[in-house]
Write a structure and sequence with these properties.
two-stranded antiparallel ribbon, 6 strands, two-stranded antiparallel sheet, mainly alpha, disordered C terminus, about 400 residues, 14 helices, Glycosyltransferase, about 5% strand
Length: about 400
């Protein structure tokens, strides 16, 4: 497949998308939910703005601006935003406000960023100072939530704040202290500081398994934070955590394809499968980290191998267009009235697998932007394989 086909793929997605409904929000589509401010659309908008920056193609930025404008009021309040949910997921889409403000100068984007920052000021915390993942998950820290909120918080400090990143670092260190498994170097999906959740180990408070996309979210957060934070001790600490994770997780890549499994530490086990969203996230983190100097340069080749593996094994042609498959639709822990989501191996492999959901498509496109940033290292990518 020629690399230009990826651009056609993106165009096909945005041509079928609007604030009234998107082609990439499969989760919300299946649930029959009305259009709302959400992290899934936020992931895609982040990827589109990055793609616009790298390719100098205004179509991607213009789409994102129109899309975000449908939810942002002139006073900076956000239509459909539910403050009472105290959901870190709802912070993620705010990442696009900073580049949009820089590009357009629209004051409402700055006001919206302030609106979201005030919501974080009201976010409940564990006794150790970490934000709860959501109101319905009291005292729980999920790796997902680190990506959803910490890069936004750091970007706010960098653009509109005082440059105080100490709270960002503290929450990353809490995750490092409680959620990293010393035997594997991998991170558990969730941690309950109260040790009351049905899914947690009563001694450690952690969930039972290493879900790939959770580790992927955390990896991308660390890659982004290592670039956002100014040089100094806080950046060095986060970069050190990032390097250790990439070294440890890389041991679980499939030696042939470079892909990672839905449950990371059990590749080849019955029911486990190469999952494209988490693989894309880790590949992006490696490619970006190598480019920015946060990681040794050798990680660039590991990231490229995974990206090529996704191209070869997870893309297929449907009606003349590429379609990204092997995406876990959604996975979580609880709440108490949903005990199927218990964090076990059997649970993670039971969730639906879909195509083109933004939780996979967006990090895949971010990988693509990293490939485009280093054309000399990626000349072999001018004609890449795709499964038919």
């Amino acid at each position: 497949m020629k690399i230009e086909a990826i651009d056609r793929y993106v165009q096909s997605l945005i041509e079928r998308s609007s604030p009234e409904g998107t082609a990439w929000n499969i989760e919300k589509m299946r649930q029959g939910e009305k259009p709302a401010w959400n992290y899934i659309d936020g992931c895609m908008c982040t990827a589109l703005l990055t793609l616009s920056e790298i390719t100098d193609d205004r179509r991607y930025a213009d789409f994102t601006e129109r899309f975000i404008d449908a939810f942002i009021n002139e006073d900076g309040s956000i239509r459909t935003f539910r403050s009472d949910a105290h959901s870190l997921d709802d912070i993620n889409e705010g990442r696009v406000l900073f580049p949009l403000f820089r590009i357009t100068g629209k004051e409402k984007y700055r006001r919206a960023a302030m609106f979201l920052r005030r919501r974080l000021n009201c976010q409940p915390r564990t006794d150790e100072g970490s934000w709860w993942h959501k109101q319905i998950y009291p005292n729980q820290v999920w790796l997902d939530g680190i990506y959803m909120a910490q890069p936004f918080a750091a970007l706010y400090e960098k653009n509109f704040g005082t440059g105080d990143y100490s709270d960002v670092l503290r929450q990353i260190l809490n995750v490092r202290s409680h959620m990293r498994d010393p035997a594997t170097g991998l991170y558990f999906h969730g941690y309950d500081a109260s040790r009351k959740a049905f899914w947690c180990d009563p001694a450690s408070g952690c969930s039972r398994s290493f879900w790939l996309r959770a580790i992927g979210w955390f990896s991308v957060a660390l890659a982004d934070l290592s670039e956002i934070l100014p040089s100094g001790s806080e950046q060095e600490t986060i970069t050190s955590i990032f390097r250790a994770l990439m070294k440890d997780v890389s041991r679980y890549a499939d030696p042939d394809s470079g892909l990672y499994s839905q449950v990371v530490n059990f590749p080849g086990r019955e029911g486990n499968y190469p999952e494209s969203s988490g693989s894309s996230m880790i590949a992006y983190a490696m490619l970006k980290g190598a480019r920015t100097g946060a990681l040794p340069a050798s990680f660039a080749s590991l990231g490229r191998k995974t990206f090529l593996g996704i191209m070869k094994n997870c893309l297929k042609m449907e009606n003349g267009m590429p379609e990204l498959g092997s995406i876990c639709l959604v996975a979580g822990l609880g709440p108490d009235n949903n005990r199927r989501r218990d964090g076990t191996y059997a649970y993670y492999i039971s969730e639906p697998v879909v195509s083109n959901d933004a939780k996979g498509a967006a990090p895949f496109l971010l990988c693509y932007t990293e490939i485009l940033r280093a054309p000399n290292e990626n000349q072999e990518g001018s004609s890449w394989p795709i499964c038919h």
